[in-house]
Design goal:
single chain; 229 residues; alpha/beta; four-stranded antiparallel β-sheet; 8 helices
């Protein structure tokens, strides 16, 4: 049944056709037919080899229309900074106690923030948080003294991105229920942030391919020129 639905959803989509962004968003929204509000995802193939340190692409972007997702945020902080994090809406705040919880295998959060003085403690969790892309990092604004701003950003639609081994970046950029204009604005903001993060070692064409899809829907190839303008 699911296979038949996917086949039907693919009808009308050219496998090699590059669609203008507005048309592609419309096609994705039309085909988002699951019983839940599907996430709209973007995949960007970049002209980099992230095995080389000067070709790593990573960063964070606050999407103008949010992600449509409720983010649970954990903060490693003490004293006044812990209080700031709580007031800003952090779901979990702690120090050694939080480290022990994570080490025990309980990771009940989607974003992890830490003050700089907590990094020796958080560093012990690298093997647990690293593979889940949850390790705080100054480059993505998750190691900071301004924990209140970081928490508000995470709650308000901040999306972290990091290129994978094959030179691909994946991210959720909204929900299928969003207005088409809101999705287009989010996608352009996201691609703009990725382009801004272009590393010094990248030569030739940086954005090679762009595709968008909903959680259960087929991918639609987007003309890169319509998102990087």
């Amino acid at each position: 049944m699911a296979g038949k639905r996917m086949k039907n959803n693919r009808e009308g989509i050219g496998r090699e056709t590059l669609y203008e962004l507005g048309e592609a968003v419309g096609m994705v929204k039309e085909r988002a037919s699951a019983k839940f509000d599907e996430t709209v995802e973007i995949a960007m193939n970049l002209g980099v080899d992230p095995r080389h340190s000067d070709q790593m692409v990573r960063g964070v972007i606050n999407l103008p229309n949010g992600t449509g997702r409720t983010m649970r945020v954990a903060v490693f902080a003490r004293d006044d900074k812990a209080e700031e994090a709580k007031k800003a809406g952090a779901d979990i705040v702690g120090a050694e106690d939080l480290m022990e919880t994570v080490q025990a295998g309980t990771i009940d959060f989607d974003r992890c923030i830490a003050t700089p003085d907590m990094m020796p403690l958080v560093g012990r969790l690298g093997k647990v948080l690293g593979p889940r892309n949850l390790m705080p990092n100054p480059k993505t604004g998750t190691v900071t003294t301004d924990v209140a701003e970081a928490v508000k950003g995470a709650k308000g639609g901040a999306v972290e991105f990091r290129v994978e081994k094959a030179g691909i970046i994946h991210a959720g950029v909204g929900k299928a229920s969003f207005e088409a204009k809101a999705l287009e604005e989010n996608i352009k903001a996201f691609t703009g942030a990725v382009i801004k993060a272009r590393p010094s070692g990248s030569k030739g064409t940086f954005v090679k391919r762009v595709a968008i899809s909903s959680t259960m829907g087929p991918g639609v190839k987007v003309d890169p020129a319509s998102v990087v303008s």
